[in-house]
Write a structure and sequence with these properties.
Length: about 270
């Protein structure tokens, strides 16, 4: 009986490979769980480990504090971008060394996946490390401008419960894809960077700021709303400090405080100049 059901939901004219044409949720769910904790696609990711041996990088998150930042100041620096960072008007001014999105691609989000990663491939140059969750693997050839050689897969078991449980070896099953901060830091360290600046990580500031540079939303929030996010981020920060990494949060101005070492955007501009 089970074999008959499986054969029915995966038969050729119902398969969910095509991002726009597929309406077969059963097959999408099947592909999601098959690839969610798969190590099948991870081995090649080891090629990029320590590909940047030392030096500094800037992780571009998408908080509102980055809205007016001139990314041209980062000309010659290595930038790791995340999420919808490609929407920033200055994104073409800096060198994107790597790009990631923290979450897996759940069923029904396939059109967004195509929009996002098509834009990422178009906005980055050959040689940029595109970090892709393994749940998107079945749809890779449906993405416009896809560059297989630049794409590396990661997969998570979602078991990030303490600072002692961290596994950030990205060519293995990791457990730190619980937010953009922990994953961004892990990627920076995996690539070999030792000095890491956080741009637009507004949830780590006091007061915490909700919203993104691209959506016009800006609201002062309660730090307790992001207590779990901050805690997981702090675990990763401590983990990297033990490895000799320096992490600096860039805050909008002197009115904002940070739970970790910080400089203002004005300080950063002086440093870069």
């Amino acid at each position: 009986m089970i074999k008959k059901i499986f054969k029915y939901i995966t038969r050729k004219n119902r398969r969910g490979y095509a991002i726009y044409d597929s309406r077969n949720m059963f097959y999408q769910v099947y592909l999601y769980f098959v690839n969610k904790s798969s190590t099948k696609h991870l081995s090649r990711t080891k090629e990029i480990k320590n590909s940047f041996n030392g030096g500094r990088c800037f992780i571009f998150f998408t908080g509102t504090s980055t809205k007016d930042f001139d990314f041209g100041l980062l000309d010659g620096e290595n930038v790791i971008a995340s999420g919808m960072a490609f929407l920033h008007t200055d994104i073409d001014k800096c060198n994107i060394a790597a790009y990631f999105n923290p979450g897996p691609w759940e069923p029904r989000s396939l059109e967004k996946m195509d929009f996002m990663f098509s834009s990422i491939y178009k906005k980055t140059k050959e040689g940029c490390h595109i970090i892709f969750d393994s749940t998107g693997y079945p749809y890779r050839n449906e993405i416009k401008s896809y560059r297989e050689r630049d794409t590396y897969y990661i997969s998570t078991n979602g078991n990030y419960v303490s600072s002692q449980s961290i596994n950030s070896e990205l060519h293995e099953l990791n457990n730190i894809q619980e937010g953009s901060l922990s994953l961004g830091l892990a990627i920076a360290n995996y690539l070999g960077f030792k000095e890491i600046y956080l741009l637009g990580q507004d949830y780590m500031s006091d007061p915490a700021i909700y919203g993104h540079f691209y959506d016009g939303y800006h609201e002062i929030g309660n730090p307790s709303d992001y207590e779990s996010y901050r805690e997981r981020g702090s675990w990763m920060i401590e983990h990297l400090k033990k490895k000799g990494c320096k992490i600096i949060n860039v805050v909008k101005d002197e009115k904002q405080k940070s739970s970790i070492d910080s400089v203002t955007f004005q300080d950063l501009e002086s440093l870069l100049n």
